[in-house]
Amino acid sequence: MTRTIRSPAEEIWATISAPGNLEWCHPFCAGNRVVTWPGPDSVDEIRYLSGWVYERRFVNWFDGVGYDLEIGGVGEPRSFVSWRIAPVDGATSTLTITVHPHPLGSLPAVIRWLPYAACVRPLLRRYLSSVVQGVEWYVTKGEAVPRNQFGRHPWFSAKRPDHD
Known about the structure:
alpha+beta
């Protein structure tokens, strides 16, 4: 998912490389506990509004450009995620988040594509769109993105209204 943001690349980097940044710019984040920061050995966890908790283990860190990480529940399969910033001009940049999801359990490879194409891919796109919009919100407005600002998500939003 790529989004063009009216902000210099340095400002976007300052946001996404700050410890605990998901609490300000992630519309489905209830908490972002930092274990180790910054750099390629960084570890944090995101607690989603739905109650899910995922650990993020950073494997590459490119100052000013982005990072790569593995994310998943403790003891569960992990997905590989890349965050990249590219300047367009002095005042505009793009932010791209690419996710390589873990395989769908023990399903044979020849039939994994059906649930992925029918369910996982559309919901993943919707999720990533909300996340990059949340970064844009924080960077351009200077205020934390409201929870569920770009719509609720069946995986990551609170399951009950009293958890919003």
